[in-house]
Structure formats: structure tokens, C-alpha cells
Amino acid sequence: QVQLVESGGGLVQPGGSLRLSCVASGFTLDYYAIGWFRQAPGKEREGVSCISSSDGITYYADSVKGRFTISRDNFKNSVYLQMNSLKPEDTAVYYCATDPDYKSLVAGIVRGSWGKGTLVTVSS
């Protein structure tokens, strides 16, 4: 069964850090670009960060640039999102998703799999 499972969300104070993980099962991530997306209450889903399949090219939304870092470990069939200096406006459900093409993923096109999401709440 093809599946993406996110973890690592939780409640954190402003300025704190969290590390999200996304583990794939039923397929290998090696040939896919992987992205993190988020959806805050009452808002549309937005792209946060993407990483290409082979050469490690990354993309970050302006709102998270300099604070978030995406990485992948193909041996563990996993992708990570290190989130530092968190702000209340980062509060959202975070999803990972795959697409065979990096540029498509950056454009928000997802033709692969979606995870079910993990909730991040930034609040004092």
C-alpha cells in the first residue's frame, strides 16, 4: 500500500523549533520530488518547501525562507522539515506530498501521494 505518514507536529511556543518527518511506504522516494505544504484554519493550502529527487535542489516560500530547512534521506525513505524561529502564523496542518517533477511540485501540482498531515500549533 502506497502511503506517506507525517509526524513531529505539536504545540510549541513562538521562537521554538520542531522537526517534521515524512516516511514513505509501499514505494521508493528516490525518483520523486518531495514537498511540504500547509493549510491553516480558514485559509487555502500553500506550498512551504520542496526538494528535488536527485540533485538536492530546494525551494522555500518567502514566508519560511531562512527559518525552515528541508532534507531527505533516501536510505530511510524519508523527508524532513526542520522548523526554527516558529511564529504563530506558522500554525497549520502540514502535509508532505510527492510528484515526479520538481518544477511541477514547486508550482503546487501533486500527481503522486499525499500524507494525512500533522498539526503544528505555535502559541504561548
Q: In terms of structural class, how would the helical and strand content be classed?
A: mainly beta
**Oligomerization category of the chains in this entry:** single chain
Rg of Cα set? 13 Å
Distance between the termini: 39 Å
Describe it for me?
- This protein has one helix spanning 102-106; strands at 3-7, 10-12, 18-25, 33-39, 46-51, 58-60, 68-73, 78-83, 92-99, 118-122.
- It has 124 residues and is mostly beta strands.
- The strands form 2 sheets. Strands 2-10-9-4-5-6 form a 6-stranded mixed beta sheet.
- A hairpin with a 4-residue loop joins strand 7 and strand 8.
- It is globular, with a radius of gyration of 13 Å.
- The N and C termini lie far apart (39 Å).
What keyword list fits this structure?
124 residues, 10 strands, mainly beta, globular, 1 helix
Helices, strands, pairings?
Elements: E1 3-7, E2 10-12, E3 18-25, E4 33-39, E5 46-51, E6 58-60, E7 68-73, E8 78-83, E9 92-99, H1 102-106, E10 118-122
Summarize the structure.
This protein is mainly β and 124 residues long.
